[in-house]
Write a structure and sequence with these properties.
341 residues, alpha+beta, FAD/NAD(P)-binding domain, 8-stranded mixed β-sheet, 7-stranded mixed β-sheet, 20 strands, 28% strand, globular
C-alpha cells in the first residue's frame, strides 16, 4: 500500500507484538477503525522465553488468547549455588510465533496490518514515511519506542538477553528452570523452559556489563542465538500529546522476572476500552494511566521493588538462597497475590 497523500484514521498502532495485536483485536471487536504498523516482515522477531503466568490481577490468559499454549506447568525450579528450590508456581509455555500469527489472523478481520513498514519518526501527529495522521497513536513498538520519543518521555533502564533453542536438555520437563548463580551471570539469570519439541534456553542480565562478561561462555551450549534489550525499570509515563504507550515501550513488565507478554496484553485491553471513551470525548488522555494503574499497577510496583531489593540488598548468594527457599514455601500465597486485583 503506497500513501500518496496523508491518510487520516481514528487509531494508529505502532508495533505488532502481543501488545499491539491485542489493542487492535479489542478495538476491532468494538468497531473502532485502526491501522497496525509493524517494521518486520514476520512475527516474533524479538527473542523471548515464551513463558507467562496463567492469571494476573484477576485476568486469565486463556480469555485473551487460546492459541499457542504448548504446556501448562505447575512448578518452577530455581537453581542456586546452594541447591535446587522447587516452587509451586504455575506457568504457561507458549509458541509465541503461533500465538502472534493467530492473533494477526483475527485482527485482519477488522483492519489492516502493514508488515515491513517501519515508522521512522512522528511529527505533528503524522507518522512518517507512511503519512498517516491518527486521532490517537498507540506506541507498542518496544523498548526503543519511536512513539515514546515523539511524546518526549524518558527511556526506561534496560537489560539485555539472548535466547536459542536446544533439543536435548538433561532437566525435569515438568518444571520451568531458572538458574540464579553468579558464576553463570550476575544481576540476572539463565533459563531452561521445556516446550513440546525442544527447549527455550536463554540468559539475561539487568545490567549490560554483566551480560557481556557472561555470554561468551554460556553461548557455547547452542547455536543461532538471538539477542535484544528488555525494559528493566518501573513503568514510564504512558501518555502525552495524542499518544499512549503499552507493553515494553512503557516498561509494562513484571520486573522481578522480566516477564511482559501477558501484562502487556492486559494493559492493551485497558487501552482499547479507554480509546473508545476518548474518541467519544468521555475521557482525557491522562485517564489511561490512572486506569491501568488501578487494574495492574500494584503488581508492577511490587515486582519492581522485589527486583531492586533482591539484587541491591541481598548481596550474598547464600542469603538469596535462604530468602528464595522461604518464598518457595509460601509460593501459593505469593501467586495468589499476583492473581488478585
Amino acid at each position: 500500500m503506497v500513501f500518496m497523500f496523508m491518510e487520516k484514521i481514528e487509531v494508529a498502532i505502532v508495533g505488532a507484538g502481543p501488545a499491539g495485536l491485542s489493542v487492535a483485536k479489542f478495538l476491532g471487536e468494538n468497531g473502532i477503525p485502526f491501522i497496525l504498523i509493524e517494521e518486520h516482515t514476520q512475527f516474533f522477531k524479538k527473542p523471548c522465553g515464551e513463558i507467562t503466568f496463567p492469571e494476573i490481577a484477576g485476568y486469565s490468559f486463556h480469555d485473551f488468547c487460546d492459541a499457542g499454549i504448548e504446556k501448562e506447568l505447575q512448578h518452577m525450579c530455581i537453581h542456586t549455588k546452594y541447591g535446587e528450590i522447587k516452587a509451586e508456581i504455575p506457568v504457561l509455555i507458549l509458541n509465541k510465533l503461533k500465538m502472534e500469527e493467530e492473533m494477526a489472523r483475527r485482527v485482519r478481520k477488522y483492519g489492516e496490518i502493514l508488515m515491513g513498514k517501519k515508522v521512522s519518526f512522528i511529527e505533528n501527529g503524522v507518522l512518517h514515511p507512511q503519512k498517516i495522521k491518527a486521532n490517537i497513536i498507540v506506541g507498542a513498538d518496544g523498548v526503543f519506542s519511536v512513539v515514546r520519543k515523539y511524546m518526549g518521555v524518558k527511556e526506561p533502564k534496560t537489560g539485555f538477553a539472548a535466547q536459542t533453542y536446544l533439543k536435548d536438555v538433561n532437566m525435569d520437563e515438568d518444571c520451568a528452570h531458572i538458574i540464579l548463580r553468579d558464576n553463570i551471570i550476575k544481576y540476572g539469570y539463565a533459563w531452561y523452559f521445556p516446550k513440546k519439541q525442544n527447549w527455550n534456553v536463554g540468559i539475561g542480565s539487568f545490567k549490560m556489563e554483566f551480560f557481556k562478561q557472561s555470554f561468551p561462555n554460556f553461548r557455547k551450549i547452542g547455536n543461532e542465538w538471538r539477542g535484544a534489550h528488555f525494559p528493566a525499570d518501573k513503568p514510564t509515563k504512558s501518555y502525552g500529546k495524542n499518544a499512549i504507550l503499552v507493553g515494553d515501550s512503557a516498561s509494562h513488565i513484571m520486573a522481578a522476572a522480566g516477564a511482559g507478554i501477558f501484562p502487556s496484553m492486559i494493559v492493551a485491553k485497558i487501552a482499547s476500552q479507554f480509546i473508545g471513551r476518548f474518541l467519544e470525548g468521555k475521557a482525557k488522555l491522562r485517564d489511561f494511566e490512572n486506569e491501568w494503574k488501578k487494574e495492574i499497577g500494584k503488581q508492577f510496583r511490587y515486582s519492581y521493588l522485589a527486583s531492586i531489593n533482591y539484587w541491591k540488598i541481598l548481596r550474598s548468594e547464600y542469603m538469596r538462597h535462604i530468602v528464595l527457599r522461604r518464598i518457595a514455601k509460601k509460593s501459593r500465597y505469593f501467586y495468589k497475590a499476583l492473581q488478585r486485583k
